[in-house]
């Protein structure tokens, strides 16, 4: 597999010119191996009991603290730029302002700052204990429905919202050449410590080097990374803010790998994944 590259020169972004771009006729699509679909089906079947238990807990939690839908439906950009709706556990109050997240994501893209979550130190829009779900990734568990439907896979780039996709440069849209996933190379390679451009490059790298070995490494690295993410979120919430400016810290020099009561569904447009 030919190596990939990423450089920043005098404000311009460059990548390997031979990397494929999004092609709606499928010529640039990354083939979906049978072994990958087999892993998806086995993982989803194993996760169904966990999903049922979490759904019961979320129903009790939302009924007590934030009456409204248990699930949250959101439009995302998927394979080859196609739109689809993902499912999540609702972690925000009904009617929460989605523009806040959209503006935050736009700023992350323009400044290329580390992708620290907006709610890392708390968010008034979140329901009680929602930060635990978000930090641990359990709020994304309903997306096994998307995996079963073939819209997503277990391992792959995280699908972005349309508002974010509109700000992508042409080369950055190449991350959509692979089917979106629940976890991926970016998630186990620093995630919130990486910049937007590093995330894009990691996603392109994964698409180019897709293999059973790589998927297994990412799967087995995901749990330790999620535990570390919960730990970091807990520390961030307990530590006092350093200044009035609560923006993300300076970008690191490089990616630090980590081992390698209403209707049932709500809708929204903010980026939460």
Q: Care to describe what's here?
A:
It contains 7 helices and 7 strands. The N terminus and C terminus are likely disordered. Strand 3 and strand 4 form a beta hairpin. With 273 residues, it is an alpha/beta fold. The chain has one domain. It is globular. Helix 3 runs antiparallel to helix 7. The strands form 3 sheets. The chain has a 3-stranded mixed β-sheet, with no helix packed on it. A two-stranded antiparallel ribbon has the order 1-2.
Secondary structure blueprint with pairings:
Elements: E1 6-9, E2 12-15, H1 34-65, E3 71-77, E4 83-89, H2 99-111, H3 130-136, H4 144-148, E5 153-155, H5 162-165, E6 181-183, H6 196-208, H7 212-238, E7 265-268
Parallel strand pairs: 3-7, 5-6
Antiparallel strand pairs: 1-2, 3-4
Biggest sheet record: 3 strands, mixed
Gyration radius over CA: 18 Å
Measured distance between first and last alpha carbons = 29 Å
Overall SS class: alpha/beta
User: In percent, how much strand structure appears in the residues?
Assistant: 5-15%
Number of domains: 1
Mean pLDDT: 77
Helix content: 25-40%
- Separate helix tally: 7
The 3D shape can be described as globular
